[in-house]
Amino acid sequence: MSTPTRVIGFIAALAAIFGITLGAGRLFGPVEATPASAGHDAHASTEPTEPADSAGADHSAHLPGGLQVSQDGYTLRLNHSELAAGPKTPLDFVVEGPEGKPVTAYTPQHEKELHLIAVRRDFSGFQHVHPTRAADGTWSTTLALTPGTWRVFADIAPQGAQPLTLGADVSVAGAYAPAGAPAEDVRTATVDGYTVTLKGDLAPGADSALTLSVSRSGKPVTDLDPYLGAYGHLVALRTGDLAYLHVHPEGHPGDGTTQPGPDITFGAAVPSAGTYRLFLDFQHEGVVRTAAFTVTAGGTNGHQH
Known about the structure:
5-stranded antiparallel sheet; single chain; globular; 9% helix; 2 domains; Immunoglobulin-like; 1 helix; 5-stranded mixed sheet
């Protein structure tokens, strides 16, 4: 074979290889990550995401809430990661901003600058409280803690930033007997003489409607109290990793259409198939109560209603 012929053949081979590479690029990339849906006034941003930096870009925006202690430059920093058991155990913490200083300015969400959720990792304990912030940015509250590992979630909207949820574990000393979440769906809960039933299903990656109905002594409760600007608050936690969703009901008190019970309808979007533990806070006659449920998304335990 002559030299010109070999050169032409070599160039043709390179072009073929390069063409295949371009084709593979169109087939396999670029891959655009789809942000997980989030509750609590859409914690996941709907803005287009920036291309990832190969030297360590922050992919946290694509994760469900509460899985990370740091996100978007904000960090939940507990003063103590080991606490004592007791009915009023002090908890102090700060949220540090991108400049490494405690955040002192927040945009209120549902009438509060910060919602703190504390849940024992086996789901045997749950609390929704609202700490007090000092001028220096330190938050303080008390929790009723039993021995075991607890996860605390700070649900916030720092001023000028997107809402987000940060999470951190705390260890509580003492004899510990793990309980575990129910293996089957639990759609009826009783608390202090109230019965709450849940209808609807969770569909992975899609918006789902859940309706919770409150009754007492067999009669529908039609005069629920407004609580933090709503007739109910719902927190969903994925078993296994405690991925967090904080969703709120459709409508709000005083809008002319939303009734104060017995039904409270929520829109929720879960990021994956799996089992979720749901906690409903509702207020009646001046007392806040919590009802707990278990719902399987995309599994055989689901129910059609």
